[in-house]
Amino acid sequence: MKVLVPVKRVLDYNVKARVKADGTGVDLANVKMSMNPFDEIAVEEAIRLKEAGSAEEIVIVSVGPSQSQETIRTALAMGADRGILVQADGTVEPLAVAKILKAIVEAEAPGLVIMGKQAIDDDCNQTGQMLAALLGWSQGTFLKELQIKGEEAEVTREIDGGLETLSIALPAVVTADLRLNQPRYASLPNIMKAKKKPIETKTADDYGVDLTPRLEVVETREPAKRQAGVMVGSPAELVEKLKNEAGVL
Ligand code: AMP
């Protein structure tokens, strides 16, 4: 089985996002960018399937600027086999990404697409669901566990207040949640090997997809500043403040 893993280049999760002066979005100039953390988990899961003999080939796809090649290389260094970069500058909304991925799925015929549950830049949590709908495939979202059992996948999902286990027919689209696995670090020899792995470069036009945004960002704001804390002199004073000032007791 071939496994397709879409990965997005996003603002590194350790970097504090700063809003552009004109409020049109987050300032990405000269800041560290990395693979979306949920996508690292998706790549790791694909590699584990390959190591277990359930997958033969892992293909990485990224839609984004030319630097997204580095993100694909990171996945290749972890253990994926080859990459496809769909070069696109500017905003690419989840529906456009899903349409591009659909065309790639039709060309590559994977048995499984493993993606992140959401990209931490826009927090959309839409692309996997949209791709499954466009393909008419089964979907398993927010995975905590994945097992391939012949023509089916058994997926354990993170749901409100617990876990849910479902059996879904393959081919399928599944999305990774935080507890699915702990992604590996690429070793130096694997980083060197990844430099020789092939990455094909395409454009949205190659797949007949129009990238014109359908959404308009009206405003982007910094979160409200946190109020300064207050030192209390005794437990009694704390209780008094919680009762009479905060009103939480
Ligand atoms: P989102 O729906 O934007 O929260 O993204 C969910 C998942 O879709 C991500 O974790 C990625 O696996 C995939 N994805 C979203 N945008 C892209 C992109 N530009 N290139 C490749 N994969 C993407």
What does this structure look like?
One of its GO terms (molecular function) is electron transfer activity. Residues 23-211 form the Electron transfer flavoprotein alpha/beta-subunit N-terminal domain. The electron transfer flavoprotein serves as a specific electron acceptor for other dehydrogenases. It transfers the electrons to the main respiratory chain via ETF-ubiquinone oxidoreductase (ETF dehydrogenase). It holds the Pfam family ETF. The radius of gyration is 21 Å and the shape is globular. 28% of the residues lie in helices and 27% in strands. The mean pLDDT is 96. It contains six helices and eleven strands. With 249 residues, it is of the alpha/beta class. The strands form two sheets. The protein has a nine-stranded mixed β-sheet with strand order 9-8-7-10-6-1-4-5-11, sandwiched between helices. The chain has a single domain (2-246), classed as 3-Layer(aba) Sandwich (Rossmann fold), CATH 3.40.50. Residues 6-8, 36, 38-39, 61-64, 92, 94, 97, 115-116, 118-119, 122, 124-128 line the site of adenosine monophosphate (AMP).
